[in-house]
User: Which sequence fits this backbone?
């Protein structure tokens, strides 16, 4: 058990080193990168936006209830803005992309592995770490912050909408009071920390996919493991990153 | 039967001029766990020469080819390509050697997200940036036409039969005009006519482009047609190696059993 644990980390370390080495040296695989950006972005956007909307509505309803109880109703816009952008938007996007893209990449690379397509790439004198892994991981790193912004936007819009249904509040007014006194450093770090989630999701899914063995069963296992491990590490990373951001941007 | 001998007559003798073999395998050993698959293999192939590798299922023929192109690492022994030992080469350095090699996988291993034509153009897209898109397309079409696959270029690999996939895989292996060809059962799953065409093609490549080829096959008829020499693998060792006639005169039981196929 512990042996397997250390072995896994050891292999992950070697894998990361191979990807880094290959990804940083030419030839750069621009076409594949663009394809993966589109794949990661368009696959997850609708899901992330929908989940963001739902979270926005839930926070809006909860905030209205508790703030009214404590007589702090005027704090509603600020509460919604901070909860969505600092907390819920990033972690929710990380978890949804872990599920959607983690499973997608894990299953795709695993099926390429067991049908010898990754060997075929290598036999064609192409470095699979460069063509297949580096591009997917970079696409995840670049796309996560953008998807987070989409989730945030959709959450704020629907959160405001849910509030405006109950009592009149113009969107302009909501935004103006929600962001009053806010600094860029309140919002940029929580948004850009999701690039780390992207790294985790891409790296784990590629690693699990490319080390797969054992036919169709192995493919299923790789997809499941990618999702489970990526989600787990995203949550663990969140703990570390939140602490880190609080220390660096007090 | 006459046609077989006609084709057999077309054999070119391997060039002996520069002496050094293009592929040289020496005392190669490979085990998976306690399964000693290859247990001291010695083989050589020269320019313009075709070696057929025979052996029962599970004797490590595919593993041998995978070792030669560096997809597996040997436990001991050496593999020299153009007199360079490939063991321990970094992937990008090995890539330079692999550009000179064409590899046909036993199950074709076509990229299932690409069309037939894109599969064949794939090595060109990555290594022949000097060629325009249409030149690459033309080259892929020409290779596919040689395999009799010109009618299926826009199909996906999942929509064509196993035998057709094999022919596409062969076209892809030839895309970069390799000097060394490693084919894992090129005629398995093909009808006799297609199989005859593939044999003719291999002979033509051998004659015109002086390729060094190692062909794994269960098809003795094909082996007899295309190969200058045959090697029979059993229990990790080369049981016998030589011209077809030499195998015919052998009194090893396994060799006799194999030849009884014909
Ligand atoms: N990656 C691997 N891990 C463990 N064992 C392996 C691996 N690859 C091959 N083997 C074993 O090595 C042996 C030889 O396999 P190989 O595929 O080379 O046989 P083969 O001669 O090509 O057979 P066939 O004619 O059926 O294709 C088999 O016992 C196989 O189980
Ligand atoms: Mg085999």
Assistant:
């Amino acid at each position: 058990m512990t042996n397997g644990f250390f072995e896994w980390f050891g292999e992950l370390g070697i894998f990361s080193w191979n990807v880094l080495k290959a990804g940083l040296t030419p030839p750069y695989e621009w076409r594949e990168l663009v394809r993966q950006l589109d794949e990661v972005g368009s696959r997850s956007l609708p899901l992330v936006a929908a989940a963001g909307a739902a979270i926005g509505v839930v926070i809006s309803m909860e905030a209205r209830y508790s703030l009214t109880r404590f007589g702090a109703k005027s704090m509603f816009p600020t509460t919604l803005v901070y909860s969505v952008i600092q907390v819920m938007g990033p972690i929710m996007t990380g978890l949804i992309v872990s599920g959607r893209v983690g499973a997608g990449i894990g299953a795709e690379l695993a099926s390429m592995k067991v049908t010898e397509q990754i060997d075929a790439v290598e036999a064609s004198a192409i470095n699979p770490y460069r063509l297949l892994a580096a591009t997917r991981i970079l696409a995840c790193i670049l796309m996560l912050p953008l998807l987070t912004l989409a989730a945030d936007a959709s959450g704020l819009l629907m959160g405001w909408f849910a509030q405006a249904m109950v009592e009149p509040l113009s969107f302009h007014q909501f935004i103006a009071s929600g962001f009053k006194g806010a600094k860029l450093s309140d919002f940029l770090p929580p948004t850009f920390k999701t690039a780390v989630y992207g790294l985790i999701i891409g790296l784990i899914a590629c690693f699990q996919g490319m080390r797969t063995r054992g036919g169709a069963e192995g493919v299923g296992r790789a997809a499941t493991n990618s999702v489970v491990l990526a989600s787990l590490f995203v949550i663990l990373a969140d703990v570390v990153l939140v602490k880190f951001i609080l220390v660096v941007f007090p | 039967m006459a046609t077989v001998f006609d084709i057999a007559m077309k054999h070119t003798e391997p060039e002996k001029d520069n002496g050094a073999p293009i592929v040289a395998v020496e005392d190669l050993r490979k085990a998976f766990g306690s399964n000693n698959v290859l247990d001291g293999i010695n083989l050589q192939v020269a320019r313009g020469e075709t070696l057929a590798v025979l052996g029962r299922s599970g004797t490590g023929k595919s593993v041998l080819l995978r070792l030669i192109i560096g997809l597996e690492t040997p436990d001991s022994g050496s593999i020299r390509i153009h007199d360079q030992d490939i063991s321990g080469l970094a992937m990008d350095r090995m890539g330079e050697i692999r550009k000179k090699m064409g590899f046909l996988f036993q199950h074709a291993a076509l990229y299932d997200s690409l069309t037939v034509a894109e599969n064949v153009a794939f090595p060109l897209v990555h290594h022949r940036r000097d060629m325009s898109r249409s030149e690459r397309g033309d080259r892929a079409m020409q290779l596919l036409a040689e395999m009799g696959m010109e009618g299926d270029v826009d199909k996906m690999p999942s929509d064509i039969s196993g035998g057709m996939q094999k022919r596409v895989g062969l076209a892809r292996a030839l895309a970069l005009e390799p000097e060394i060809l490693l084919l894992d059962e090129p005629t398995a799953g093909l009808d006799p006519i297609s199989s005859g065409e593939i044999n003719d093609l291999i002979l033509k490549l051998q004659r015109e482009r002086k390729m060094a080829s190692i062909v794994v096959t269960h098809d003795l008829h094909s082996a007899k047609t295309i190969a200058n020499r045959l090697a029979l693998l059993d229990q990790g060792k080369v049981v016998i190696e030589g011209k077809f006639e030499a195998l015919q005169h052998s009194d090893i039981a396994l060799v006799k059993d194999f030849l009884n196929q014909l």
Summary: Chain B touches chain A through 26 residues (CB under 8 Å).
